[in-house]
Amino acid sequence: MKLFKYRITKKTKGEDDLIDITSDVRCCVKESGAEDGFGVVFVVGSTASILTMEYESGLAKDVREFLGELIPKDRDYLHNATWDDDNGYSHLRATLLGQSFVFPIENNEPVLGRWQQIVLAEFDHRPRDRVVVVHIYKV
Amino acid sequence: MKLFKYRITKKTKGEDDLIDITSDVRCCVKESGAEDGFGVVFVVGSTASILTMEYESGLAKDVREFLGELIPKDRDYLHNATWDDDNGYSHLRATLLGQSFVFPIENNEPVLGRWQQIVLAEFDHRPRDRVVVVHIYKV
Amino acid sequence: MKLFKYRITKKTKGEDDLIDITSDVRCCVKESGAEDGFGVVFVVGSTASILTMEYESGLAKDVREFLGELIPKDRDYLHNATWDDDNGYSHLRATLLGQSFVFPIENNEPVLGRWQQIVLAEFDHRPRDRVVVVHIYKV
User: Fold this and answer.
1) B6 neighbors B136 (Cβ within 8 angstroms)
2) For chain B, what is the domain count?
3) Which of A105, B84, C72, C110 could be cross-linked to A37 through a Cys-Cys bond (beta carbons 3.0 to 4.6 Å apart)?
4) Searching chain A, which residue's CA lies closest to the CA of residue C116?
């Protein structure tokens, strides 16, 4: 089994910016030449997530609204006091949705449904330079 | 390391149908002959999830009730307008719970607790033919 | 590819005990000698989770408060009737947050942000002896 290591870097806008990285991940798989195997997608940091969804603007707004109600931005999170910061909500959302995603590879393609995209979710309140680590394992 | 590829196909009933696929996954592990290694369980599509739970009818109802309150079926999700469809809630639930599950294998068995089952969750409003991709990696 | 198998065992206090296991996992990676590869962290049982967060006491309290509101301890979960037990809420929280975490390894280190820790979350109401399975795969 052989490992091919990649980095996807994205400038995010902060505030629940949802960025479709499926084509970036697909490029990694192509370049590795892996016919069969699996990929690990991992975002470094504790205020962003990797998630899957049908990437279309209506659903993206639904996701933002859902998270905005579930974990509101403007509560007095204790984390904010720790650092005199105001991104406690970002941390909670990132913990809920996770930073790691594993997908199978077959026929030199990620096995994904047509409406199933891999998305980098920025939960921090400010723009960030995000690093997404992609490991492609080729059988 | 060697890869064994499987497909589990299930006819679901829609509406939060929770299907225990632990024995199907265990069969894949057995058939692969993997003493040690790991498995990737992945459901194709953006309105279903792979989750783990103690599979018993009381808890299954608790899971359904929890999700029904957290992400109600009958809200005006913007996704519904995009496709003139009504499964926005299905997408949100699937994004929240994820489509991918990785487990360790030891002694030719998935390492699972006695009350820890692998479950295919159908969040779409209608019955679906679901394809679950199982990759078994044998050391 | 070579597999190194480890067990991390922890006595938890119950009641949303959050235990930072990053240094334990880092030790496994070191001992394996894996320069590149990946790790699987898996907690056995259906009332605990593996999650990632910035491990500091303020955020730990935020996580507990968030879960306490989202999935309150004192509701009449049907699971409680099944076993004449009272940990239905523990199961729901564990299903929501998951039992499995996969991370990339580079330079004989888990690839993690400075504020991104791997945490064992005990959701059961009573102290437990938890077993965390760690598989390190070395390329």
Assistant:
1) yes
2) 1
3) A105
4) A46
Q: Which chains touch C (3 or more CB pairs under 8 A)?
A: A, B
**Is C14 part of the contact surface with chain B (CB cutoff 8 Å)?**
no
No. of helices (H) and no. of strands (E), chain B:
4, 8
The answer to whether the CB atoms of C104 and A135 lie below 8 A apart is yes
Binary contact (A98, C96; C-beta < 8 A): no
CB within 8 Å: A44 and C112: yes
> Residues of A with CB below 8 A from B100's CB?
52, 101-103
From the list B1, B53, B96, which residue is nearest C91 (CB)?
Answer: B53
Which CATH number does the domain housing residue C61 bear? 2.60.120.460
- What pTM did the predictor assign? 0.97
pLDDT one digit per residue (tens) for chain B, 139 residues: 999 999 999 999 998 999 999 999 999 999 999 999 999 999 999 999 999 999 999 999 999 999 999 999 999 999 998 888 899 999 999 999 999 999 999 999 999 999 999 999 999 999 999 999 999 999 9
CB atoms within 10 A of CB B7: 11
Residue B59 half-sphere exposure toward CB, CA atoms < 13 A: 28
CA separation (Å) from B59 to B34, B47, C95, C133?
32, 21, 11, 25
Range(s) of the domain holding residue C103: 2-138
